[in-house]
UniProtKB/TrEMBL annotation:
<dbReference type="InterPro" id="IPR036188">
    <property type="entry name" value="FAD/NAD-bd_sf"/>
</dbReference>
<protein>
    <submittedName>
        <fullName>NAD(P)/FAD-dependent oxidoreductase</fullName>
    </submittedName>
</protein>
<dbReference type="InterPro" id="IPR050775">
    <property type="entry name" value="FAD-binding_Monooxygenases"/>
</dbReference>
<comment type="similarity">
    <text>Belongs to the FAD-binding monooxygenase family.</text>
</comment>
<keyword id="KW-0503">Monooxygenase</keyword>
<dbReference type="GO" id="GO:0050661">
    <property type="term" value="F:NADP binding"/>
</dbReference>
<dbReference type="GO" id="GO:0050660">
    <property type="term" value="F:flavin adenine dinucleotide binding"/>
</dbReference>
<keyword id="KW-0521">NADP</keyword>
<keyword id="KW-0285">Flavoprotein</keyword>
<keyword id="KW-0274">FAD</keyword>
<dbReference type="Pfam" id="PF00743">
    <property type="entry name" value="FMO-like"/>
</dbReference>
<dbReference type="InterPro" id="IPR020946">
    <property type="entry name" value="Flavin_mOase-like"/>
</dbReference>
<keyword id="KW-0560">Oxidoreductase</keyword>
<dbReference type="GO" id="GO:0004499">
    <property type="term" value="F:N,N-dimethylaniline monooxygenase activity"/>
</dbReference>
Length: 536
């Protein structure tokens, strides 16, 4: 005996996936520990607390019942889209309501996990408030999130900047006041698009450093009236069922009509109605928007016209129009007054594609042609997505096989769940699964329930370990690529492809076939005795 604490399962990460996984494992009678590097639960929503942070999936749908329909009935969502504070309240409520905290160790950062073949256990070492500790566990479950490792570009001189530097994905817990300051924001993805209108209200001057314009649509956020909430609650069982049966993980039916078969005036009316309604659902109005360039161009053109209608300075409007890639191939943004913000006299859009940033100086940002004096700098520069958090843990499977080496050219998984050579290790909503291309909470729910049932199967059939068969893993990775190749996704230099982090392999990581098709596949595999998994 090593002296390390023995448990049945170690779960890493206290976001939606980790909390629900812990609940299910506990109900199965497994002695489980959840390790979380933050000082609180909430995952993404614990770290991303920048001004304007909110989810762009509507409140009732960006939630799950945690297999207890009473939760759906008792929680009162206040707005159409949940903001960061409300999501944190919800996650904390979940942790309390299901008594999860007693098995959660906060401020506990996992450093390594090594599989011991003689005992079929994982030795998981983490650094916690009391120093380094090790747990020995049969199952090792990664609920580490797809967007949890901030990407900080290697700007020359960043460390010399005398003002404050913030990253949206690692925002301070105390309030940040930009009143009267000259602020620079680098990055115009979803985080930047949400933050910029809020900072513009406080800053004396705001410089927005944009390398690539994004497509953004209005959120049309507002209170969720008592009447609407009552209706949602009444319909929850049906809504949850619908969410399980669509490609997007949303309750709205998948589109069947094609732009290419629809008269232009009808297409325009559909886009217009969705623009007024708000939400990213505009990209799911027709079945060919993600696969047909000409159809997609019509949506791009529609958004460009909207920008022209909002932004007063035609030159600024022109710069704000995304042109190099199809709508949705980089994740569409959902905003509250983003384009309108560029009509403010204290806001300047700086195009750093044509005039690149050369360094950060003591007093601001230097581009090839100009220097911008700043008091504070916000990096809205995204994440080392999908693989970053997993690759940050020194994971060794059978025969000393290291995940860092095995995934050197991109992630290899079977169903995004299991990796050949890493027995009893499961990843939730990670690379190779639909996760970020769908309503991620719906995707997480499916993964957690599948893993939980799989563990039940192993126990019922006296199997000690489960891991992906390498041939099935290869086939799955090929399938993920084949589906991606049928879409327009490969035309955007997105974080889906690892293109936002210099040197990261360019591999399309999520599964683009939709949640319903994926769920069916997972169920079929389970029904066939977990085909493709080596059960020993
Ligand atoms: O990150 P991003 P994000 N010099 O990678 C720029 C989710 N999310 O945090 O496009 C200059 O999208 C980069 O420019 P470019 C959502 O899934 C959801 O905004 O690489 N610029 C880009 O403009 C989202 O997709 C919500 O040319 C540099 C920006 O930084 C995902 O998180 C809210 C640069 C990064 O955009 C990530 O969004 C927030 C450099 N060296 C986030 N490096 C909601 O639910 C990077 N950039 C609403």
């Amino acid at each position: 005996m090593s002296g390390a604490q023995q448990v049945d399962a170690v779960v890493v990460g206290a976001g939606f996936a980790g909390l629900y996984m812990l609940k299910r494992l506990r109900e199965r009678g497994l002695n489980s520990v959840l390790l979380e590097r933050g000082a609180g639960v909430g995952g993404t929503w614990y770290w991303n607390r920048y001004p304007g942070a909110k989810c762009d999936v509507e409140s009732p749908f960006y939630s799950m019942s945690f297999d207890d329909p009473a939760l759906d009935q008792e929680w009162e969502w206040s707005t159409r889209y949940p903001d960061q504070a409300e999501l944190m309240s919800f996650m904390n409520h979940v942790a309390d309501r299901f008594n999860l905290r007693e098995d959660i160790r906060l401020e506990s950062s996992v450093e390594s996990a090594t599989f011991d073949e003689s005992s079929n256990t994982w030795s998981v070492t983490y650094r916690g408030p009391d120093g380094e500790k090790t747990l020995e566990s049969r199952f090792f479950i990664l609920a580490t999130g797809c967007l949890s490792v901030p990407n900080v570009p290697k700007f020359e001189g960043l460390e010399n900047f005398k003002g404050s530097v913030y990253h949206t994905g690692d925002w301070p817990h105390e309030e940040v006041d930009f009143t009267g300051l000259r602020v620079g924001v680098i990055g115009t993805g979803s985080s930047g698009v949400q933050l910029i209108p809020e900072v513009a209200k406080e800053a004396s001057e705001l410089k927005v450093f944009q390398r690539t314009a994004n497509y953004s649509v209005p959120a049309n956020n507002g209170p969720l009236t008592a009447e609407k909430l009552a209706k949602v609650k009444e319909e929850f069982p049906e809504i949850r069922e619908k969410m399980r049966n669509t490609g997007t993980g949303m309750p709205t039916p998948d589109p069947t009509e094609l732009v290419s078969n629809t008269p232009d005036e009808v297409v325009r009316k559909v886009f217009e109605d969705h623009w007024t309604l708000g939400s990213f659902a505009i990209q799911n109005t027709f079945a060919d928007l993600a696969i047909n360039q000409e159809s997609n161009d019509k949506l791009a053109h529609f958004i460009h016209e909207k920008i022209d209608g909002i932004v007063e300075d035609p030159e600024v409007a022109e710069k704000l129009k995304a042109r190099e890639y199809p709508v949705g191939s980089k994740r569409i943004c959902v905003d509250s007054n983003y384009y309108e913000t560029f009509n403010r006299s204290n806001v300047e859009l700086v195009d750093v594609k044509s005039d690149p940033i050369t360094s950060i100086t003591e007093t601001g940002v230097a581009t090839q042609n100009k220097e911008y004096e700043l008091d504070a700098l916000v990096l809205a520069t995204g994440f080392d997505a999908m693989t970053g958090a997993i690759m940050n843990i020194d994971i060794q499977g059978r025969d000393g096989k290291r995940i860092q080496e095995y995934w050197d050219a991109g992630p290899l998984t079977y169903l995004g769940l299991s990796v050949a050579g890493f027995p009893n290790m499961f990843s939730l909503a990670g690379p190779g699964s639909p996760s970020v291309l769908t309503n991620v909470v719906a995707a997480i729910e499916q993964h957690v329930e599948w893993v939980d049932e799989h563990i039940g199967y192993l126990d019922e059939h006296d199997f000690a370990t489960s891991e992906a068969h390498p041939d099935y893993e290869r086939e799955w990775v090929d399938h993920v690529n084949e589906i991606a190749n049928m879409t327009l996704f490969l035309k955007g230099a997105s974080w889906y492809l690892g293109a936002n982090v210099p040197g990261k392999p360019r591999v399309f990581m999520p599964y683009a076939g939709g949640l319903k098709a994926y769920r069916d596949r997972c169920e079929e595999i389970a029904a066939n005795g977990y085909e493709g998994f080596q059960l020993v």
